[in-house]
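Practice problem 4.
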């Protein structure tokens, strides 16, 4: 990939060139630009075997209230309709682009807000989104934990029989909830679909 684009292939989309009997294609990658809301579109043509880079600015969106709402790291790319690719920031949203257009534009499809306050770590462990036939499907898992006290197995003569608590900062898993949503493209809202709690399952 060209300088400035992602260092791996997780955010590269493959777009076949229409009406081309030779089976040519374009590789499309999107990287975050040097300014807020700006991105660089990197395209590789199988015909010319060369990369090109086009700086683009995200179209204004009512979903962007602060700079924190702007996608700043892409976790994967998904193919959309025809020549359109979506680059997914699983914490914030999907930046889409019709990469074969003469003057390509970027638009934002925001994802539902996460149930955690700190947007860090690997979101792919608890959030994902897919696209098929004009429908986005989103899933999020919310994990619950409870605090526990670790009691020493050694009872000193001066200690009570119940033992001495040596660590009060330990948490252990205590269940989960899965929520799903879907969105018809184009639209400006998500539908709530299903909510499943671990206690809903019986063994």
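Answer key:
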């Amino acid at each position: 990939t060209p300088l400035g684009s992602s260092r791996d292939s997780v955010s590269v989309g493959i777009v076949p060139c229409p009406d081309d009997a030779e089976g040519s294609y374009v590789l499309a990658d999107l990287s975050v630009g040097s300014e807020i809301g700006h991105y660089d579109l990197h395209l590789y043509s199988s015909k010319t075997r060369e990369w090109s880079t086009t700086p683009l600015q995200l179209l204004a969106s009512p979903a962007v209230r602060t700079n924190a709402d702007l996608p700043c790291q892409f976790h994967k790319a998904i193919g959309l309709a025809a020549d359109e690719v979506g680059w997914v920031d699983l914490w914030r949203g999907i930046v889409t682009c019709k990469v074969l257009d003469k003057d390509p534009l970027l638009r934002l499809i925001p994802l539902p807000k996460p149930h955690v306050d700190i947007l860090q770590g690997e979101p792919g462990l608890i959030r994902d989104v897919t696209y098929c036939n004009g429908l986005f499907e989103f899933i999020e898992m919310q994990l619950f934990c409870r605090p526990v006290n670790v009691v020493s197995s050694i009872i000193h003569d001066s200690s009570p029989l119940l033992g001495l608590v040596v660590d009060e900062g330990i948490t252990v898993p205590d269940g989960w909830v899965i929520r799903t949503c879907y969105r018809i493209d184009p639209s400006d809202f998500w539908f709530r679909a299903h909510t499943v709690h671990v206690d809903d399952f019986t063994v």
